[in-house]
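Our consortium's second objective concerns turning raw sequence data into structural hypotheses that experimental partners can test. To show how far this objective has progressed, the report includes one record in full. It was chosen at random from the queue rather than selected for favorable results. The single chain below, 281 residues long, was entered without modification.
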Amino acid sequence: MTNLNGELLDSSNFITSENRGYKYGDAVFETIKAVHGKLLFWEDHYFRLMASMRIMRMEIPMNFTMEFLESEILKTIDANSLLKSSARVRLNVDRGDGGKYLPKQKNISYNISVEALTSDFYSVSKQETYTVDLYKDFFVAPGLLSTLKTNNKAINVLGSIYAEENGWDNCLLLNTNKNVVEALNGNLFVVSGETIKTPPLEDGCLKGIMRKQLIEVIVNSGDYVIEEASISPFELQKADELFISNVITGIQPIRKYRKKEFATTISEDIIRRLNVKLRMS
């Protein structure tokens, strides 16, 4: 079941060919992990959504409070019999139907879809091989729009196809300055000794919710130093560890980049600290 503007519908019947999110990518979305009826990092997701809507010049409805959207998400989770387990939630916000590039109306539409997840808390994948390489056919533009979760994800789609064609698990994206900005499905962290580096938002990486959480965990650890700075492709092979973050997986260690193989010691330590933070919240 999908929630369309508060009405629960069969998932195949809720979108038209005139929908602006479908036609022009005129939509923003949040991917949220729910565990036993609790939306992880919900406040961060909500405020990122509100900021994204403002940047996209969407008129935010008066009823779009944190409590209202949370209740709509939980209603959808319940309708899919997932309140007592874990779920992946997609909250999509668009300008409805009509218009060309210029919207004909200012009405805001939303839909919520969910799917089951198998794990509650986060763990480092025991996958023995997780190989990545650079995707260099197209580049991310540095700037504010690239930091948003919008439906304009052509480079992520093409990069995913390219990775599959080459037998890789993921690809790393470059911006037009040829700096590494992120993976296809999450933010990138580079570990060198006790310093953990991640690209700055100004380079065009996604303003990730898990990125924010991990930065806080690293700052509060007392054992590591976080640095938000541009990352050259040449730094990747010199690193001790590389890992990708998103709210569904938590941390995905990169095991191999080209000829270099990486450890997962720091990744495992940080995910342990993140789970401690979650249990205390």
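The partners drew two points from this record. Helices lie at 20-24, 42-55, 66-79, 154-165, 209-221, 233-236, 265-280. The mean pLDDT is 94. Both points have been shared with the crystallography group to help prioritize constructs.
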